[in-house]
């Protein structure tokens, strides 16, 4: 009789050992897979994480006043704390990305929303995109003049339309139907951006027709920084990325940059990472920057840091372009990589550790 009691106990013990063995086997597989992939980043380092940028370019300490520097740092911190709070409370990465970008869009400091740069015609034409790493669904809008927060329009395109990208008047019509906040075009006027347009126009006055495009003049290409972007990983392991911009000062002919192009300015995939770009858009489109980083992780087994370095320090400059990215991978590793003198940026991990930066060092 006594022995009979021991039988189920022994069975339980046996089963327990077996499941332990299974666990060990799985762990070993994961470890050896990581070794094969040469990725030291295969372990979850953050349950959730968020990284933002406010544009990359020739941002030099000597050109920045102490007040300006403090204002940028404060706004970056305010924005990232909004997203971090959402993630901490179990909100989705998509919501965190959208709300964080709204703070930056509503500030005149950045080339997005309120602070958008001017086109050659003296208008403001805004681009934005957002991507959901879980479903690979995406939404984008280009060339809008009356939508206060283009990132909200991008999200509405993703969720409430059968399309991925809408542009111009059609996009504005859709925004109206979606009851998004519309503003008069004059809402986007800021004196500093208008003066930048005047400077750029004066600088190109003696140029030939071909060189009058914003894209061939090194003095002009730097009149663009301030694009904003956000990437986030939420507690459910879902990644999201979003980017919003006014594009480049003096752009013309309905020029659209990389920011609203999925794979160039924005990309998110739960299998790899979420990326938001900023920089000289033409090159970021040609290098397919955001997707390329994900693809290097996916197909070549690179870590996020390695993939970002390859694209930003080699591929883009080899083509002649400049700029940077912020990214977070599925394990919560965060990267802020740029090949310019500076990039407005901030990151916050699950423990609440905050970093804010502007210059390279
Ligand atoms: N990438 C943006 C564009 O080319 C500009 C920027 O990031 O500053 O439109």
Automatic annotation (TrEMBL):
Residues noted as binding substrate in the record, renumbered to the chain: 255-258, 278-281
Signal sequence, renumbered to the chain: 1-19
Highest taxon in the source lineage: Bacteria
Keyword Protease attributed: yes
SUPFAM superfamilies for this protein: N-terminal nucleophile aminohydrolases (Ntn hydrolases)
Cleavage (site feature) positions: 226-227
Any single biological process term in GO: proteolysis
GO molecular function list: hydrolase activity, acting on carbon-nitrogen (but not peptide) bonds, in linear amides; peptidase activity
InterPro entries registered for this protein in UniProt: Ntn_hydrolases_N (IPR029055), Peptidase_T2 (IPR000246)
Keywords in alphabetical order: Autocatalytic cleavage, Hydrolase, Protease, Signal
Family annotation (PANTHER family): L-ASPARAGINASE, N(4)-(BETA-N-ACETYLGLUCOSAMINYL)-L-ASPARAGINASE
Record-given protein name: Isoaspartyl peptidase
Lineage of producing organism: Bacteria, Pseudomonadati, Bacteroidota, Flavobacteriia, Flavobacteriales
């Amino acid at each position: 009789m006594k022995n009979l009691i021991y039988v189920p106990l022994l069975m339980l013990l046996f089963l327990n050992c077996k499941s332990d063995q299974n666990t060990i086997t799985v762990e070993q597989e994961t470890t050896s897979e990581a070794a094969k992939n040469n990725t030291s980043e295969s372990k979850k380092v953050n349950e959730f994480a968020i990284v933002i940028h406010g544009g990359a370019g020739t941002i030099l300490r000597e050109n920045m006043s102490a007040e300006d520097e403090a204002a940028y740092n404060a706004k970056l911190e305010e924005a990232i704390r909004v997203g971090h709070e959402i993630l901490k409370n179990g909100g989705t990465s998509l919501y965190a990305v959208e709300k964080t970008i709204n703070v930056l869009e509503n500030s005149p400091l950045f080339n997005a929303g309120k602070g958008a740069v001017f086109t050659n015609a003296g208008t403001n034409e805004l681009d934005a995109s957002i991507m959901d790493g879980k479903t690979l669904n995406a939404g984008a809008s280009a060339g809008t003049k009356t939508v206060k927060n283009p990132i909200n329009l991008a999200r509405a395109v993703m969720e409430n339309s059968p399309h991925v990208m809408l542009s111009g008047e059609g996009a504005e019509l859709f925004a109206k139907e979606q009851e998004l906040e519309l503003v008069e075009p004059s809402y986007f006027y800021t004196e500093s951006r208008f003066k930048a347009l005047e400077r750029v126009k004066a600088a190109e006055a003696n140029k030939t027709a071909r060189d009058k495009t914003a894209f061939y003049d090194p003095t002009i290409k730097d009149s663009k920084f301030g694009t904003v972007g956000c990437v986030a990983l939420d507690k459910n392991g879902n990644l999201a990325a979003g980017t919003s911009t006014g594009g480049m000062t003096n752009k013309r002919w309905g020029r659209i940059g990389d920011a609203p192009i999925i794979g160039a300015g924005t990309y998110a995939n739960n299998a790899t990472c979420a990326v938001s770009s900023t920089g000289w858009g033409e090159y970021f489109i040609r290098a397919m920057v955001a997707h390329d980083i994900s693809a290097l992780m996916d197909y070549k087994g690179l870590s996020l840091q390695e993939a970002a370095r390859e694209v930003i320090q080699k591929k883009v400059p080899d083509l002649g372009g400049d700029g940077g990215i912020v990214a977070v991978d599925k394990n919560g590793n965060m990267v802020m990589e740029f090949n310019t003198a500076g990039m407005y940026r901030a990151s916050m991990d699950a423990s609440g550790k905050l970093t804010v930066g502007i210059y390279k060092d």
